Amino acid sequence: SVQTHRQYSLDSFEIGRKLGKGKFGKVYCARDKATGYVCALKVMEKKELIHFKVEKQFRREIEIQSNLSRHPNILRLYGHFHDSSRVFLILEYAGQGEMFKVLRKKGRFSDVLASQYICQIASALSYLHKKHIIHRDLKPENLLIGLDGEVKLSDFGWSVHTPSSRRTTMCGTLDYLPPEMVEAKDHDYKVDLWALGVLTYEFLVGNPPFEEPAHKATYKRISKVDLKIPPYVSVEAADLIRRLLQHQPERRFPLDQIPEHPWIVKNRPLWPNNSGCERRSS
Ligand SMILES: CS(=O)(=O)NCc1cccc(-c2cn3c(Cl)cnc3c(Nc3ccc(N4CCOCC4)cc3)n2)c1
């Protein structure tokens, strides 16, 4: 694997194809010359980080993600380095790419696929919460898929150590924000439970539950928990969605009970697939 203590520079790698372009950077497939190990190299221009005033967020991403040791559903950050104008993150390569592209292509996921993804994400979130980290930015754009189809949580730019009250202004989609963040109240790890409910809905329906063209309308629907679950969503899935999308944070369904929820149990594959969520040896 990529050794995490070694000093890296750009010429430690053979750069492969560009995997994608995000808001702050580009990601390339790369091979570590010394070990032949394939990884992903995320490149960001320093002047862009300064311009977007996200260098603090970026430093937090590095600090948080490098301290996260092995979890099958959290994308590993092996190291980072910089040159005069750019910063580089050496990340685990996720062999099947971006979750949101797969979701857009498929439209929506089956109960079996969606429940496996949700169980894996719950496992990753539970691991983060035990380390007093809240992700705060759970959405398909921040999920990658590994070679064996397992989910990889990535992009910890918005993660913080609990408890926290948001200082940086929100940008991007509001769809995943729970009432307490939309109302800018103090919030804690239970914001991730709300986002998990939004994600469960989006995996099964194809769009997030409170989506509206105008921000104001989205705010309103989130605040009122104006939730309409289509009839084709299974009873068990609808039950979990409702238990996660509770206005009061303390009423939200606890992560540790998710592997035993009927929707997860009913749709769990018979064969183990090292996804981090296989059937417990009952
Ligand atoms: C802000 S950003 O720049 O970080 N996000 C934009 C973006 C956009 C697109 C991709 C990727 C991406 C990131 N990855 C990381 Cl990090 C690790 N592996 C991948 C990774 N892996 C990957 C693996 C396979 C594929 N294929 C699979 C076959 O079909 C075509 C795409 C794409 C990406 N992709 C990222």
Structure description:
By secondary structure, the chain is α+β, with helices and mostly antiparallel strands. It has nine helices and ten strands. The protein has helices at 46-51, 55-67, 99-106, 111-130, 179-182, 190-205, 215-223, 235-244, 262-266, and strands at residues 13-21, 25-32, 38-45, 77-82, 86-92, 97-98, 133-134, 143-145, 151-153, 160-161. The strands form three sheets. A five-stranded antiparallel beta sheet has the order 1-2-3-5-4. A three-stranded antiparallel beta sheet has the order 6-8-9. A two-stranded antiparallel ribbon has the order 7-10. Helix 6 (190-205) packs antiparallel against helix 8. The radius of gyration is 19 Å and the shape is globular.
